């Protein structure tokens, strides 16, 4: 059984609750355990994963959050830099699924966060487990 850390950027409570439900259901359906770490926003997710990995307590990570475009360029920064930070950690060998939504409005976020619709939380958990399988296969 693997132990998964879900790192959630809790910027929109109701949307995160939906993403968490999907991710947790997917992890439990696969027979694994999980715990959740909450950070303020998407920009803090890569650092939190890196710090948590230092503990050696986790086999894989699921990043969750919602970034909704506002009035300024900050949307691009938050989206691109959180994704880049997560990708850098992936390329360093961590098993991570990225379920940070980057959307134009709340309606788009809801459709993607709800388990009964696009279930991006569950999809990110599945991706993390797939990467863990690869890590187990290729890294002794
Ligand atoms: N606007 C959103 C943010 N912004 C906050 C940043 O992620 C970060 O926490 C802040 O800049 C302090 O370092 N974060 C989200 O997750 N979603 C947003 O819509
Ligand atoms: C995605 C964001 O950072 C956003 O919430 C910021 O809004 P604004 O660009 O209107 O300051």
From TrEMBL:
Catalytic activity: (2S)-2-hydroxy-3-oxobutyl phosphate + 5-amino-6-(D-ribitylamino)uracil = 6,7-dimethyl-8-(1-D-ribityl)lumazine + phosphate + 2 H2O + H(+)
Enzyme class: transferase
Pathway where this protein functions: Cofactor biosynthesis; riboflavin biosynthesis; riboflavin from 2-hydroxy-3-oxobutyl phosphate and 5-amino-6-(D-ribitylamino)uracil: step 1/2
Binding positions (5-amino-6-(D-ribitylamino)uracil): 11, 42-44, 66-68, 98
Domain of life: Bacteria
Pfam family, one: DMRL_synthase
Gene3D superfamilies linked to this entry: Lumazine/riboflavin synthase
Signal peptide stretch: none
Positions of (2S)-2-hydroxy-3-oxobutyl phosphate binding: 71-72, 112
Gene Ontology molecular function: any one: 6,7-dimethyl-8-ribityllumazine synthase activity
Active-site residues, as the UniProt record annotates them: 74
Entry EC number(s): 2.5.1.78
Alphabetic keyword roster: Riboflavin biosynthesis, Transferase
Function in brief: Catalyzes the formation of 6,7-dimethyl-8-ribityllumazine by condensation of 5-amino-6-(D-ribitylamino)uracil with 3,4-dihydroxy-2-butanone 4-phosphate. This is the penultimate step in the biosynthesis of riboflavin.
Family: Belongs to the DMRL synthase family.
PANTHER family documented for this protein: 6,7-DIMETHYL-8-RIBITYLLUMAZINE SYNTHASE, 6,7-DIMETHYL-8-RIBITYLLUMAZINE SYNTHASE DMRL SYNTHASE LUMAZINE SYNTHASE
Protein name: 6,7-dimethyl-8-ribityllumazine synthase
Species of the source: Sphingomonas kaistensis
Gene name of this polypeptide: ribH
């Amino acid at each position: 059984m693997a132990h998964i850390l879900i790192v959630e950027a809790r910027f929109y409570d109701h949307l995160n609750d939906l993403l968490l439900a999907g991710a947790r259901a997917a992890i439990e359906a696969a027979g694994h355990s999980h715990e959740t770490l909450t950070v303020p926003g998407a920009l803090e997710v890569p650092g939190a994963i890196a710090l948590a990995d230092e503990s050696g307590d986790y086999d894989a990570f699921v990043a969750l959050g919602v970034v909704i475009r506002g009035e300024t360029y900050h949307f691009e920064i938050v989206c691109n830099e959180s994704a880049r930070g997560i990708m850098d950690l992936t390329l360093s060998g961590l098993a991570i699924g990225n379920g940070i939504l980057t959307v134009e409005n709340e309606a788009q976020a809801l459709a993607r966060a709800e388990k009964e619709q696009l279930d991006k939380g569950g999809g990110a958990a599945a991706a993390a487990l797939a990467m863990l399988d690869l890590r187990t296969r290729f890294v002794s």
